[in-house]
Amino acid sequence: MAAALLAATATLGVVGAPGAAVAAVAAPGLGTEQQARAWLPQPTGPYPVGTTSLQLTDDRRDDPWKPGQHRKLMISFWYPTARPATGNDRAPYMVLGAADHFGSADSVGQSDYGFEPGRTDWAGIRTHARPDAPALPGGKRPVVLYSAGFGDPRTWGTALVEDLASRGYVVVTVDHTYDASEVAFPDGDLATSVLPALMAQPGLDVGALLRKTLQTRVDDTRFVLDQLAALRRDKQLPAGLAASLDLDRIGMVGHSGGGSTALQTMHDDPRLKVGVNLDGQLHFPGPDGRTGVFLSSVAQDGLTRPFLLMGTQNPDSGSYHRQPGWDALWQHSTGWHADVTLTGSRHGSYTDAQSLLPQLARQGAISPEKLAEDVGDIRPDRAELATRSYVASFFDRWLRGHDDHLLDGPSARFPEMTYER
Known about the structure:
- This protein is α/β, with parallel strands linked by helices.
- The protein has twelve helices and 16 strands.
- A hairpin with a 7-residue loop joins strand 3 (49-62) and strand 4.
- Helix 4 (158-166) crosses helix 12 (380-400) and helix 10 (353-362) runs antiparallel to helix 11 (368-375).
């Protein structure tokens, strides 16, 4: 749905994955089929990773997509711990109900990325994190929020999130209920996206839908920021986690609509000190979805705090000069900012699509044509390394005061990154 909404506005090698492992499954009336399996790349930081999930309910806000009920969200924490997870001790990539829906023909994920329904063992993918592990002692750690693209679940950025946690950050991933493909709650409720039905309505004002979606996400993010302060006293979190949250050093990174959310929330809420936008537009179309350019308020006003724009070679992306929202933001901002573009990439290259989909393609669960459309022709390991390195360099510089100088200019380490200041 991220791609569908954005469209309305305007491979070689895999890290950490055995060759072509498959699982045999029985399909009614079809005999035995082979389900594709996939692996996430290993985190690169020095710390093992822990994770825990939590439901939050905003008693003061009506759900904008489901009037008459309070807004409820699922979030996950990813953080340094002492002992690495192995084998089945590793947390699942998606809980079973969410995995089943995500892999079905009814999911936004399937329609957005084009993998064959039912052909992938999404429930069998494991993270590298130990569930509910105690936090590693060592004082307060900077906090980074993560928001996925319109229609994507919070899990779709796990490779990046785990890497940040392994480097010493506490990362909080947010599912935007009824926007994300599906959100599984502890009581068994599975809230699926309302966006496909809304997009199919005749006479839809696409710009209005995009503005509502973005505003809902900003409200979600600000609510999570409110809750983080209260959670520092929450005894339900794993040992040491609440005490490790440094709420004076908070940043945010997001992909697509999540990147738009990160910078718009920075504009609206001073608690966010810095932000990274991974290929998220900052302008809206007119009512017909094709004509007119209407800037978001962050693009109109600019930012006084540091931000990083990371574009792709998608037809509607690239340099900030080519995007009206990014260009306006650039011209109106006084805080430090830079722009990089990943050569050979596509819109999905900054997500887990870059690691997982090439593995599925080798097992026949996604076509080569759709794979190229989703993640381009850049080597997956290079795209993953570049994404992790630039995002970590930015947060290290502005939340920790550790500058590796990667963001000073073009880098010989990453010739595939075009740099602009």
